[in-house]
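Run log, item B.
One chain of 461 residues. Sequence copied directly from the ordering sheet:
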Amino acid sequence: MVAIVDSINLRPKGLGVRHVQTLLLFMAMLLAYSMRVNISMAIVDMTNEKNDTYFDWSYSIQSMILSSFFWGYVVLQIPGGILARRFGGKMLITISVSVNSLISLLMPILAQAGGWQMVIVCRTLQGLTQAFIFPSMHHLVSQWVPLEEKGTLITIIYAGAQLGIALQLIAAGFLAEAWGWQAIFYTDGALGLIWTIVYLFIGASGPEDSKCISDEESLYIRTSLGRVEEPKVLKTPWSKILLCLPFWAAVVGHCGQNWGFFTLMTEMPTYMAKVLGMNLKQNGELSSLPYLAMYALSFPLGIMTDVIVRKKWLSVSNTRKLSNTIGLWGPAVALIGLSYIPEGNMTLAVVMLTVSVGVNAGQYTGYMLVLNDLAPNFSANLMGVSNFFANIISIVAPLVCGVIIQDETDPGEWRKVFFLASAVYFFTNLFFILFATSERQSWNEDENNDIETKEQEIQEK
């Protein structure tokens, strides 16, 4: 308890270098997700025969392009966590954003030179390097974010992903209409390289490596995180992790989330263009609404779960289950409603899409926190394994859509896609409810280490 009081007393007034790092990491998430989804909007215009430069790609080829990012992304999930712990987060996240930016800049040239095959190669390479994003971010957060500021700063950082998707969808329509689809890739690439240059100068793997931080702020962060002394390195108990049923319940919840989320993220622009008849500019503006809603709802949902736990209205485990249920069963119901909307009712369709993605924000305080609750000392490893399996689903979902949808203008075929996503949401969350828990696992602690983790100490107090 003394250490906690000490860290509170040490807290410097005003903004500090940790807040600058938070802003930089927020921008990294925003740019990474912008480059992750830009092809979803660009491909609508790239295959528009009214343009001077367009590609005659079938819907199945488009589905392969949309899923190819995850072919690379899934490969380095587990190694990414190991590399982040060994080399630090700064190097890996810099590689990720810079490589993605260079590929974005070259994408229009390479697409015309090598066709859809080259686009798939580029997207796969972008996925390979973006596999470092979450492991790097977890590592950097663990080094920079004091426990007393964890909720606010981590929410700011990770919510950058949803804002990046929303801004990309909005900007893509304007850029393509003004300068052609090529401008979408050029803009993302240029912004990413600017971020890289700035981060190389003022970014740091931790307060110990920063040249800008004051001794006062550095001591505050290290005291809060219990890093005043050299931390012990714990051996990862892989066998116990793989035999832990609550962990696999969180993985199943993660897989269900990814199926629905990435089905909508990759297919929504095409649905709006082919079924609802929107032009690219309308498409981008309206496609962004669900992600703006998700970004906005992530904050009150996070606060809600903190209040429930603090007031002891529910146990931590049941609070996580409630949040995950909002995040997965909410979209399941909305997608069923979307399936029965009369043809031509564009407003109601957009409302239902916004609801289905917006309430999905519940997953941030659902299975994602369970992965941390179970074993904080190995949360990066748990996330790496979970992300590995969940992103296999991210590959499969667009391909399944390509098989189901033979006529992109047929609402009946899209109804099958929405029903399937709804069923996946429902049954994976049911498994999560039955078997997940937030109880700290015995293998989280090194039996030879008599110093409890700081987060465990705070929970007990």
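Observations after the first pass:
- The mean pLDDT is 83.
- The longest helix spans residues 89-130.
Flagged for discussion on Thursday.
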